[in-house]
């Protein structure tokens, strides 16, 4: 009978045992001297005293008490001269991986990351929780998604230490589990503002494998959606408005999460864009964020735009176009005395092309940035339009985004760049979520800044 409540205590006990190794004596295969494994902070080390036999395949067998394990280390490739190797000495190696048994080629796997988010309920009021059923164990701090008709659960489990656990509920190949888990890390990272990384353990039955990713956990200053308006201090002082939002905000449905993770897995461009977004938001760089967010917007535009959906002719009514051109010529007549003759001639020549067809392959930068919003039905406000225009400032080396003749103090520059970063992040959120099928409110991060330009952003949450 399947238990109702998730339980990872067995795996966590094993992890704790390995993590607590402190100068623990081990016996190496084919080695007569004294050896020990220890862990200092986040790094495992093997210390060997005597003549060390370097393994040919980079893998070294050892006995931890009576248990056989295999460790790997890039230090085994050290280019020691063969004449030096037979000399007894104390040698220390960094351990890259440690495993017991062989992980299955397919089946059920559980991946454990140490949770350094400092958040007790990472998914609460952000992502939809699975409903209890008799087929799968459940947990309050859990998200259930579908990737390629295979169910995965992502759980926050434990207290001290806490873990993020990714497990497949349907049998998958180990290769697919690895790919899917990496996509889940990035998808959850974007949606919750915390991407697990660094040290992790994978279990399949009694076998396990320890390794360490080069990318540590990333914690973003932003996340796109919350169903809890009281999570923002500014709304605690506005009870009436907070109550209004509390009735209309909703979590991101599991189907939307599934769609996003699947897109990340299948699109290298989106995958890199999410990583880029998380890394710069983790660094909290006031200078870097506007520029990087602008690059990400352009990257998303390239992947989201469907050329066949580009509106080729803006106004299909030919007579209406003729009426508009005639009226615009009359407007130009009004201003003729105030315009240079050559300029007037060129303006009149442009009017017949008012309704010229758009070439999907030759969109201007401004058209390209706005086209995905049009295709997804996302309405851009005047402040959104201005934020998109700042991309040109950055592209042409105006990293402070000052308009002509404008001078700002250092504090004003920081405030302005933070505001633009928040605007661009919100626009990125709208594109990613809407393209994944989300309909609901996203956080308007720009409104949360005490900044003069924020008066153009009337709401703390915006509907897409």
Summarize the structure.
With 464 residues, this protein is an alpha+beta fold.
Report what the structure shows.
By secondary structure, the protein is an alpha+beta fold. It folds into 4 domains: 9-100, no CATH class; 103-284, no CATH class; 289-312 and 357-464, no CATH class; 318-353. The chain has helices at residues 9-19, 174-192, 233-236, 239-248, 254-266, 268-283, 288-304, 318-335, 341-350, 365-376, 382-395, 410-435, and strands at 24-28, 34-40, 43-50, 59-64, 67-72, 89-95, 97-100, 106-107, 110-114, 142-147, 150-157, 163-168, 172-173, 194-195, 199-204, 207-212, 218-219, 441-443, 461-463. It has a 13-stranded antiparallel sheet with strand order 6-3-2-1-4-5-7-16-15-9-12-11-10, sandwiched between helices. Strands 8-13 form a two-stranded antiparallel ribbon. A hairpin with a 2-residue loop joins strand 2 and strand 3. Helix 7 packs across helix 11.
Number of strands: 19
Class computed from helices, strands and strand pairing: alpha+beta
Count helical runs: 12
Poorly predicted regions are: none
Portion in beta strands: 15-25%
Radius of gyration: 29 Å
Shape by Cα distribution: elongated
Domain module count? 4
Helix amount: 25-40%
Mean pLDDT: 86
Strand order of the largest sheet: 6-3-2-1-4-5-7-16-15-9-12-11-10
Taking the sheet with the most strands, its summary is: 13 strands, antiparallel
Distance between the termini: 43 Å
Question: What does the secondary structure layout of this molecule look like, with pairings?
Answer:
Layout: H1 9-19, E1 24-28, E2 34-40, E3 43-50, E4 59-64, E5 67-72, E6 89-95, E7 97-100, E8 106-107, E9 110-114, E10 142-147, E11 150-157, E12 163-168, E13 172-173, H2 174-192, E14 194-195, E15 199-204, E16 207-212, E17 218-219, H3 233-236, H4 239-248, H5 254-266, H6 268-283, H7 288-304, H8 318-335, H9 341-350, H10 365-376, H11 382-395, H12 410-435, E18 441-443, E19 461-463
Antiparallel strand pairs: 1-2, 1-4, 2-3, 3-6, 4-5, 5-7, 7-16, 8-13, 9-12, 9-15, 10-11, 11-12, 14-17, 15-16, 18-19
């Amino acid at each position: 009978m399947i238990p109702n409540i998730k339980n990872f205590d067995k795996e966590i006990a094993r992890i704790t045992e390995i993590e607590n190794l402190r100068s623990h004596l081990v016996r190496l295969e084919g080695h007569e001297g004294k050896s020990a494994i220890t862990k200092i902070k986040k790094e495992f080390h093997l210390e060997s005293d005597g003549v060390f036999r370097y393994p040919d395949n980079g893998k070294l067998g050892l006995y931890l008490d009576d248990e056989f394990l295999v460790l790997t280390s890039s230090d085994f490739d050290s280019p020691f001269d063969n004449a030096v190797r037979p000399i007894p000495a104390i040698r220390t190696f960094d351990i890259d991986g440690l495993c017991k048994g062989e992980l299955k080629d397919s089946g059920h796997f559980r991946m454990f990351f140490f949770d350094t988010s400092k958040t007790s309920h990472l998914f609460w009021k952000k992502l939809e929780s699975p409903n209890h059923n008799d087929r799968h164990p459940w947990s309050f701090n859990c998200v259930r998604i579908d990737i390629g008709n295979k169910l995965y659960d992502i759980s926050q489990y434990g207290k001290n230490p806490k873990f993020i656990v990714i497990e497949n509920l349907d049998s998958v190949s180990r290769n697919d589990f690895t790919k899917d888990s990496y996509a889940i890390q990035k998808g959850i990272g974007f949606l919750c503002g915390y991407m697990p990384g660094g040290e992790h353990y994978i279990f399949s039955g009694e076998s396990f494998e320890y390794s360490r990713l080069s990318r540590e956990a990333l914690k973003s200053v932003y996340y796109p959606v919350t169903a809890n308006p009281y999570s923002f201090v500014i709304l605690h002082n506005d009870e009436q408005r907070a109550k209004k939002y509390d009735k209309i905000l909703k979590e991101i449905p599991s189907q939307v999460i599934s769609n996003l993770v699947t897109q990340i897995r299948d699109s290298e461009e989106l995958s890199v864009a999410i990583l880029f977004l998380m890394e710069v938001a983790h660094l909290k760089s006031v200078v870097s964020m506007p520029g990087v967010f602008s690059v990400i917007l352009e990257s998303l535009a390239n992947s989201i735009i469907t050329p066949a959906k580009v509106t080729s002719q803006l106004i299909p009514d030919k007579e209406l176009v003729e009426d508009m051109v005639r009226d615009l010529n009359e407007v130009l007549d009004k201003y003729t005395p105030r315009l240079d003759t050559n300029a007037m001639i060129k303006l009149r020549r442009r009017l017949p092309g008012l309704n010229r067809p758009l070439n999907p392959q030759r969109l201007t930068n401004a058209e390209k940035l706005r086209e995905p919003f049009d295709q997804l039905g996302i309405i851009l406000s005047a402040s959104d339009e201005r934020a998109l225009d700042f991309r040109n400032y950055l592209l042409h080396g105006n990293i402070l985004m000052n308009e002509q003749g404008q001078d700002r103090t250092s504090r004003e520059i920081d405030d302005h760049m933070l505001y633009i970063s928040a605007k661009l992040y919100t626009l990125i959120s709208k594109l990613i979520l809407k393209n994944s099928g989300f309909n609901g409110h996203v956080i308007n991060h720009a409104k949360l800044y005490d900044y003069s330009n924020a008066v153009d952003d009337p709401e703390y949450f915006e509907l897409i």
